[in-house]
Amino acid sequence: MVAGCSALGGRDTNQDSWHAGERLIAVADGVGGAPAGEVASRLAMESVVAAGPDMPPEEAAVRANAAVRAYAETDPATHGMATTLVIAALGADGWVRGAYVGDSVTLVQTDRVELLSSPHTLGAELVAAGHLTAEEGARHPNRNALVRAVGMEPTLQPDTWSRPAVVGERYLLCSDGLTDALDDADFLAALTGLRAADPRQCVETLVRLACEAGARDNVTAVVGDVVAWPT
Fold first, then answer.
1. Which residue has better confidence, 124 or 199?
2. Neighbours of 25 (CB within 10 A)
3. Is the pTM of this model over 0.85?
4. Which Gene3D superfamilies does the UniProt entry name for this protein (predicted)?
5. What structural domains does the chain harbor?
6. Nearest to 14, CA basis, from 31, 38, 36
């Protein structure tokens, strides 16, 4: 069972793209401040969907990077465009695999909520490398600057994760417009309260709560529940 939902939030246009397929879910968030973010996210998503659920997600992300870069070479107005990308795919072998680039979010929920992605931002990278403490990273003036995104460089190194599929697990992919609008406590409380809700109700409620909280960015959420796996 899958569902997706997106809203403008505090933006005039929506630069997010999403896909909710039976075995493949994904979210792309066009990079703000760069040209044609909505074009980059759309192209990346089209490439991921064309690759399908059986292609390793990291390979699908690399193909998306090539597609965005190739388009930018043909249209000067889109030069420099980029997008975040998170992918989760249910394989025919009963494993769920994911890849991510940028600062969009991937979560899995069972009896608890587990973060499967980490942001590719300057602040997070400096903290991970030990150059800053977590507190210093949170105060860094360029902490949210992306250091990795689809379309940013000719080559792409997505991070990956994998785990066996378990019936009843819920995967949530979202743009940072959702997590930035809700603090951790409210976000976790909302997820806990929606655990028994179907995916459609879950994503629509999360997006609505973010908008009501004053989201300054586009807000997109996609949920996939594991109900079975291919045999």
1. 199
2. 28
3. yes
4. PPM-type phosphatase domain
5. 2-225 (3.60.40.10)
6. 38
